[in-house]
Structures are given as structure tokens and as C-alpha cells.
Fold Transcriptional regulator, HxlR family.
Amino acid sequence: MKHKHHRRSDCPINFALEVLGDPWSLLIIRDIVYFGKKTYTEFLASEEGIATNILASRLAHLEQQGILLKRPHPTNERKEMYALTEKGLDLIPLLVEMANWSAEHDPQTGAPPDWIALMKAKREQMLPLIRETVQQGRAVFAGPDSLVSQLQ
């Protein structure tokens, strides 16, 4: 009897990471870029179900590696917020390529087809827009001032 692998989600980034290696670090970065997540609690709520100890470890590692910057939350002193550094922002093209690859090869992808088509057709124009959006603390898909909402 063949063992069936249980997928964490249908996200194109998750698919690529399950094929290529450990998913957690790039999924945290994905959550910042695409969904505007900034706090431990927000990352913990992601559909892949990261364990608390793994999340804490990955956040600390990404900060230590200069990918994330941790700062106090402006309205709640018990919370901390995470943002991508310049080094972390440099991973955006990798995320885009992983999403494109996954959308093409994963029949169960959760990637929006219109977004993937736009990224394939106008990659060079879109990458700086994504970077600028994230630098401003916004996200590609989430929030009223998301990049997608501004493109419509």
C-alpha cells in the first residue's frame, strides 16, 4: 500500500518548499510579502499550522541572518513586529519565481490565475512595485491598500 503525503496547504510557495526543503522560513517571508503579517500571532495563524517553538526559532534565525528586523509594536508594548530588511526584500524575486513554478506544476494550486499571468507577463515591472509595497508596510493581497487593490 502506497503512503499518501498530506499537504499542509495548496499555496504555491508551500508546494515548492515541500518539494525542495524546509518550508517555514520562506513561508514567514511569504506571509509578510503577500498577506501583510507582522506579528508572532499573525504568523501563528497561517494555514500551514507552524508549531510555536518552530515559529519562535525561525523568527530568531531570520532576524539573526539579517532577513528580518524586529521592533516594538507601536500600540502594544507586549507585542513585537517583524519587517523585511533590504536583504529580506531581495528574496521577493525568488518568491515570485517559486509561485510561478508551483502554479504551473501543482494542479491543486491556490494561486490566483490572474495574478500568476500578470507576474509572468510583466515580471520586470511588477517586482519593483511589490518591493515598494512591502517596504511601505503594505502587502500584495491583504488589506485595503494592498497592491492588488491598487492595480484594479
The chain has a mean pLDDT of 90. The CA atoms of residues 16 and 101 lie 8 Å apart.
